[in-house]
Design goal:
The structure holds 2 protein chains of 2 kinds. By secondary structure, chain A is mainly alpha-helical. Chain A has a single domain, classed as Formate dehydrogenase/DMSO reductase fold (Up-down Bundle). Helices cover about 65% and strands about 5% of the residues of chain A. Chain B contains 7 helices and 11 strands. Chain B has a 3-stranded mixed sheet, with helices on one face. Chain B has a two-stranded antiparallel sheet with strand order 2-3. In chain B, a hairpin with a 6-residue loop joins strand 6 and strand 7. The longest helix of chain B is centred in the N-terminal third of the chain and has 11 residues. The N and C termini of chain B lie far apart (about 60 Å). The chains are: A mainly alpha, B alpha+beta. The interface between A and B is large, with 58 and 61 residues. Strand 3 of chain A pairs antiparallel with strand 4 of chain B. Bound molecules: iron/sulfur cluster (2 copies). One iron/sulfur cluster (SF4) binds next to helix 2 of chain B.
Chain lengths: ~325, ~240
């Protein structure tokens, strides 16, 4: 498939925004439960939600560049019963709404206490909204990944590993972003975020590596024989029916050399996983703000390469019909 | 339930592209708007088509055969392109099984084209919406046309009658009989899409002729290699056929 930059930005920015929001709400929840210091992260909840919202808006804007008719985008919520794309379109604004309310509650201080835990911890309105938003965040990971994973003949994508990858890679970048933000907004809490960012980066590396291994072993199900229904071992396309380009020759071929695709695989394994893991570990050990800031920048760049590779790697069966220009 | 479909006979298709051009002509002139081309007379031209005729070579030289292969939307009975559409623009009609795109609803997200294993959908770059074969839905029900013309434009154009059109759910229709009796098959059956369009395979036509059929052993003319000579006034054997 041809990687579209709109979709690369859409999925990476959304993933990081969702992960960042999950990180903040997780922190507030653990602080309420007494696992973390109750007030150390306060300074981060509002601005952090703001950054998460900015990432989500960035992803939404990128998505419009993917549409031929963005002015009709509202129609895309209609088929939520059958279409994962439609479900994503519904969950995303709902998530943006909760992130906005969460951030606004913290920034404006309009944040009534809804209940008290037996230990005396206050469950405020923001936390309730935040927990709902966390559910939506996870749901959005599933929706985004299922858009790709549900296409059964795109076998590189048709796997639970796709859902695991989208979730873990998004969480990794979100927690890394939280760690970088915490160095200035809530320095005492940076190790918490960096530690979890490291854990998600390692888990993400494992599941992404698993999908690379799986995809390398795939054997095509469709062949030229089943494509045109002729039972002969030797079939060659002489003409695809036109000498010019068409949607089919543009949309489904990445048009890059296999050597470039292979080298980009190593690039993203380094930039999305290895280098950020080292920087996160360094940040954890030394408390260096620069290391954590570098970690998120490198990881986002790496994840964009990862997403490019994700699309380029998928081999659409329609390509069997477009092998020879004439 | 009706399921309209094309049955394409690969045994007689000669790869003339008449179906391609007549499809383009009909469908670019209709009320649904043009099927535009980009830089049609430039160097980097491209266009949107519903139907393409491809050519394959089967076997190794000199034992090869050329197969011309027309390809358009197969109007799958279980179309994977329909449920993924977020707007409901892509739909399969209950009454006749035609898979259509509602051009007023489509947002051009291309998701349906990813979900079609056959590459049957093409994005129209000018109107920025998805296009595909409609089985000439604006033609086959047109009561102003004589009944024999209420067929898709490609079927009308085919000089070898390689394209049959009809209801594959009616066991007595021409298309059902062709599928049943001439080994009609679907493309890529492995994905469970149950294409409505079927293809008829290449066949070898062999006639077995024995020597004694070419030259009759008991031919009276051959007995003494002489024409029987009738008496004057009698009819000759040459006249026998007119007796
Ligand atoms: S051939 Fe492709 S576009 Fe046509 S109905 Fe089947 S899946 Fe859909
Ligand atoms: S391109 Fe149009 S028809 Fe296809 S899935 Fe998107 S909205 Fe539906």
């Amino acid at each position: 498939m041809r990687p579209a930059f709109s979709v690369i930005f859409l999925t990476t920015l959304l993933g990081a925004g969702q992960g960042l929001f999950l990180a903040i709400v997780a922190h507030q929840t653990l602080a309420l439960l007494g696992v973390l210091s109750p007030d150390g992260g306060r300074g981060m909840y509002g601005p952090g939600a703001g950054v998460a919202l900015a990432l989500l808006v960035g992803g939404l804007v990128a998505s419009f560049f993917h549409l031929g008719r963005p002015e009709r985008a509202w129609r895309s919520a209609a088929m939520w019963r059958t279409s994962w794309l439609s479900r994503e379109v519904i969950v995303l604004p709902a998530l943006m709404g909760t992130v906005f309310l969460y951030g606004a509650a913290h920034l404006t201080g309009v944040n009534p206490v809804l209940a008290r835990l037996p230990g005396g911890g206050a469950v405020d309105a923001a936390l309730a909204v935040g927990l709902a938003g966390s559910v939506l965040s996870v749901a959005l990971y599933v929706c985004t990944a299922m858009i790709y994973a549900c296409l059964k003949f795109l076998r590189e994508w048709h796997s639970p590993l796709t859902v695991a990858n989208y979730t873990l890679l998004g969480a990794a970048s979100g927690f890394t972003a939280a760690a970088a933000l915490a160095t200035s907004l809530a320095p005492s809490e940076a190790p918490f975020f960096a530690g979890w960012a490291l854990a998600f980066t390692v888990l993400g590396a494992a599941s992404r590596a698993a999908s690379l291994v799986r995809n390398a072993r795939l054997r095509p199900v469709s062949t030229l024989q089943t494509a045109i229904g002729v039972r002969h071992p030797v079939i060659r396309q002489i003409s695809q029916g036109f000498t010019a380009g068409s949607f089919n020759t543009r949309e489904f071929f990445h048009g890059q050399a296999q050597s470039l695709v292979r080298s980009l695989k190593w690039v993203f394994l380094l930039l999305a996983f290895a280098v950020p893991a080292i920087l996160l570990a360094a940040g954890l050990a030394s408390g260096s703000a620069q290391a954590l800031a570098a970690a998120i920048l490198v990881q986002m760049a790496g994840l964009m390469v990862e997403r490019w590779f994700f699309f380029a790697e998928a081999n659409h069966p329609q390509n069997l019909y477009y092998q020879s220009v004439a | 339930m009706t399921q309209l479909a094309l049955v394409i006979d690969l045994n007689v298709c000669v790869g003339c592209h008449a179906c391609v051009t007549s499809c383009k002509e009909w469908n670019t002139s209709g009320s649904a708007g043009p099927l535009p081309d980009t830089k049609a007379y430039g160097e980097q031209y491209a266009g949107t088509f519903f139907n393409r005729v491809q050519t394959y070579e089967v076997g190794c030289y000199p034992d090869t055969e050329t197969v011309h292969f027309p390809k358009s939307c197969l109007h799958c009975e279980d179309p994977p392109c329909v449920p993924v559409c977020p707007t409901g623009a892509s739909h399969k009609r209950k009454e006749d099984g035609i898979v259509l795109v509602d051009y007023d609803k489509c947002i051009g997200c291309k998701y349906c084209s990813w979900a079609c294993p056959y590459g049957a959908r093409e994005l129209d770059d000018h109107n920025r919406i998805m296009k595909k074969c409609t089985l000439c839905v604006d033609r086959i029900y047109d009561a102003s046309l004589p009944p024999q013309d209420r067929k898709p434009a490609c079927v009308m154009a085919c000089p070898t009658s390689a394209r049959l059109f009809g209801d594959i759910h009616d066991p007595e229709s021409e298309v059902s009989r062709a599928i049943r009796e001439e080994g009609g098959y679907p493309l890529m059956p492995e994905w469970g899409t149950h294409p409505a369009n079927h293809y008829l395979p290449r066949r070898k036509t062999r006639v077995l002729i024995h020597d004694d059929e070419l030259e009759r052993a008991d031919n009276p003319l051959k007995v003494d290699r002489q024409q029987p000579r009738p008496a004057k006034g009698e009819p000759t054997l040459d006249d026998a056929v007119t007796w």
